[in-house]
Amino acid sequence: MKKVFVLGGTGFLGYFTIKELGRRGYNVSTISRHPMPTEDLLPGEVEHKVGDINNMSDDEIREILEGVYGFVYAAGADERTLPEAPAIKFFYEANVLPTQRLARLAKQAGVKNFVILSSYFAHFAEEWTDIPLKQNAYPRSRLLQEELACLEGEGGMDVMSIRLPYIFGVMPGRMPLWSMFVNRLKDQKIVPVLGGGTAMVTAQQVAEAAIGAMEYGEHGGKYAICGMNMKHSEFYQMVLDALGQEDSTVQVVSLDQMKPVMEQIDANNGKAGKEQGVLNSMMAEIQNRDAYLDPAETMSLLTYHEYDIRASIRETLQKCVQEGAKAEFQ
To answer: Which of 16, 18, 100, 266 could be 148's S-S partner, Cβ–Cβ 3.0 to 4.6 Å?
Structure first.
């Protein structure tokens, strides 16, 4: 069976992708910067090495990729990171340069398909031309990442990207990324939220879509995937329900009310020499809109399936609450 290399295989999305690849009979190898959080995280037949691929020589990487048919790039920095200003330097070095190098080496090694797990911020940066989202460091880096990887693949390797929205699911040995968000809402009586909404998927859908892109995608394809759409107010209420905060209230507020608060956070970050990958003031603009996607545009093409996303959200939030409670007693 064909061999697939997954970069970041012990991370959240890499883990689900490797499991799905194994179910479909692929031979899988992976490199991760950190050891497995649990000894039996990955199936025994998966070839796993611990190391930083960015510190390896070109020859070492080409040797690792020899005989590999598909490459899934499940690594990089996302918008939650607060780097030193200017943020574009950090995201360029974290997301763009490594991807360009690995795409070039993958093509030289004979890899046929290269799939990047990207962000739906890249999609909306192109769609929402009335706001300067494209000028923000994180979506700008994602667009550059896609473009340069595609150029490296020209004439010999197909390069596709999966543009990801909010993602839910749990894995062994790791706390869900949503734990920070849950902690922010804990014990709040009034929870302000803007009136927009967002697309959502499960981690299993991401894995299926990534493999679908590898199997059926076209070179240069940029696939913004979605399982369902939900208002932020409903999601916030689900968080409060998971916390058991029956006396707390979700209150939808206007952009005019929220944006000055976000602008002040940006100003404070600036004084500290920091810059968000998506400015908080821009995030307010985004969360006041419906960042919705149509599953029909990608689901049949990439052959990912429908799942009970609300159930996945509840499972994810429950683990956040349970692990948080354990931490308080340690």
So the answer is: 100
